Amino acid sequence: MTNSYILRKKNDIDEQVQHYLDEVYSTVVSRNPNETEFHQAVALIFKSLSPILRKYPHYMEKGILEQLVEPERVITFRVPWIDDNGKVHVNRGFRVQFNSALGPYKGGLRFHPSVNVSIVKFLGLEQIIKNALTGQPIGGGKGGADFDPKGKSDNEIMRFCQSYMSELARHIGPDTDIPAGDIGVGATEIGYMFGQYKKIRGNFEAGVLTGKGLGYGGSLARKEATGYGAIYFVEEMLKSKGLSINGSTTVVSGSGNVAIYAIEKATSLGAKVVACSDSDGFIYDENGIDLDTIKEIKEVNKDRIETYLAKHPAAAYFAGCNGIWGIPCDVALPCATQNELDSESAAKLISHGVKAVAEGANMPCTPEAIDAFLENDILFGPAKAANAGGVAVSSLEMAQNSMRMSWTFEEVDEKLQQIMKNTYESCLAASIEFEAEGNLEIGSNIAGFKRVADAMVAHGVI
Ligand SMILES: NC(=O)C1=CN([C@@H]2O[C@H](COP(=O)(O)OP(=O)(O)OC[C@H]3O[C@@H](n4cnc5c(N)ncnc54)[C@H](O)[C@@H]3O)[C@@H](O)[C@H]2O)C=CC1
Ligand SMILES: O=C(O)CCC(=O)C(=O)O
């Protein structure tokens, strides 16, 4: 009698939770039609949340999920600029100020032709949970424009950045919203945007942007932070199985900021990184990639990865990006872009004996690929946790700006290592508490969600 009563109660709450998740998700889909990346990001988070909603049903009673998936503010604006031939172009700019429960909105800006409201919202939603996992006092936001920096002159990029900031400036500030870089936005673009912001405001507010140059308020180790942080996270995952990245064969997709510094740290810890890519194709160098050549191609010459062969004729180049996951490796790090690693690629990695996969990029693995890794007991580091090092050091940059002082590279790196260790441990602890031991996908979503949800409950319905 008692047992069947308990069983019925348990089924009731299971049903309520599932009904609540389904209902909020279907509202997201109907209210935001065609925003497929945003739907995917919502579904990924919701898939992990049943256990915590069962344990703490007050999150449902207080409508936390309904509020979480609706950005506090979405700003869309015109970005007109003039090219070197005098022709006028108009791009569309975005900033999604998604959630400020834990602090001012914080997250990068992406300049890429694919940028639209769906992409900015998926990135913004992920950023809320990621920022919470770092333990830093930062809310979640993201922005960008459908501007393609490829093939543009330095003057064109400067004029674009100035125009973009002419509008964005009125919406941001060191205690309001602090943008940084993402795809297509590095220290050069941040510099031009900072210059324009300073001119408009008539103030030197260093803390309004992060990822700044070292000469005017940037932090040592910010450039390296996302890639290094991903490797610190991978080391924690591997350690849990008595393994290490030392001696591993590693494959990294992309060859931008995240990929380059992931390769640098992995190599310094004894991994052999044999492949990396750009949006045209990938290189395979069985001796281990020469990172100085990659840096020269990507950071100095802004050229294509194929040109690696000029200095390393024994290496191989393959057109197309997906083939990179067919290379046998122990550790795979997708560090390029969303949905770059699908179930077919996951199956290849698994059949070749991959031991760990960690997402340096945001949402690079499709939901089916993630399921395949988890079902096959592959260590899986989700983006929200594995690539949190970049925004964590951005928060340290804000702290240094507030104090008007600078920490050494070693000091920042040490704090980054501690944050990545803490992030790993809080994801693991949540996975254990909610009976999914070692499933860091569930652990990261629950641990990050709980911190944000508790703050939202404390603030009331606002
Ligand atoms: N920069 C940062 O601090 C952080 C970046 N991320 C994420 O990491 C990813 C990469 O960003 P960044 O390195 O900053 O950008 P980036 O602009 O420096 O580099 C992007 C690289 O990816 C390559 N790429 C683009 N599409 C590709 C594809 N389909 N296959 C292979 N390569 C492709 C580009 O050629 C470029 O080399 C993005 O998902 C971004 O959101 C995440 C956390 C922080
Ligand atoms: O450093 C930041 O504020 C943002 C980094 C970022 O865009 C990300 O974590 O995806």
Explained architecture:
This protein is an alpha/beta fold. It has helices at 2-31, 36-55, 58-61, 64-68, 117-133, 154-168, 187-201, 222-239, 257-268, 291-300, 308-311, 343-351, 367-375, 383-386, 389-403, 409-433, 440-459; strands at residues 73-82, 88-99, 105-111, 140-145, 177-180, 249-253, 272-277, 281-284, 316-319, 331-334, 356-358, 379-381. It has 3 domains: 2-69, Glutamate Dehydrogenase, Chain A, domain 3, CATH 1.10.285; 73-206, Rossmann fold; 225-386, NAD(P)-binding Rossmann-like Domain (Rossmann fold). Helix 5 packs across helix 17, helix 6 (154-168) crosses helix 7 (187-201) and helix 8 packs across helix 9 (257-268). It is globular. The chain binds 1,4-dihydronicotinamide adenine dinucleotide and 2-oxoglutaric acid (AKG). 2-oxoglutaric acid binds next to strand 3, helix 5 and helix 15.
In CATH, the homologous superfamily of the largest domain goes by the name NAD(P)-binding Rossmann-like Domain
Cofactors, ions, other ligands: 1,4-dihydronicotinamide adenine dinucleotide, 2-oxoglutaric acid
Shape: globular
Low-confidence stretches: 1-6
Strand order of the largest sheet: 9-8-7-6-10-11-12
Number of domains: 3
Q: Can you count the helices? A: 17
CATH architecture of the largest domain: 3-Layer(aba) Sandwich
Secondary structure tally: strands = 12
Radius of gyration from the alpha-carbon trace, in angstroms: 22 Å
State the name of the first-level CATH class of the largest domain.
Answer: Alpha Beta
State the helicity in percent bands: 40-55%
What name is given to the CATH topology of the largest domain?
Answer: Rossmann fold
Distance between the termini: 44 Å
The string of secondary-structure elements, in order, is HHHHEEEHEHEHHEHEEHHEEHEHEHHHH
Q: What about the largest sheet? A: 7 strands, mixed
The chain-level mean pLDDT equals 97
What fraction strand? 5-15%
Q: State the secondary-structure class.
A: alpha/beta
Keywords: NAD, Nucleotide-binding, Oxidoreductase
GO molecular function, one term: glutamate dehydrogenase (NADP+) activity
Subunit structure: Homohexamer.
Family: Belongs to the Glu/Leu/Phe/Val dehydrogenases family.
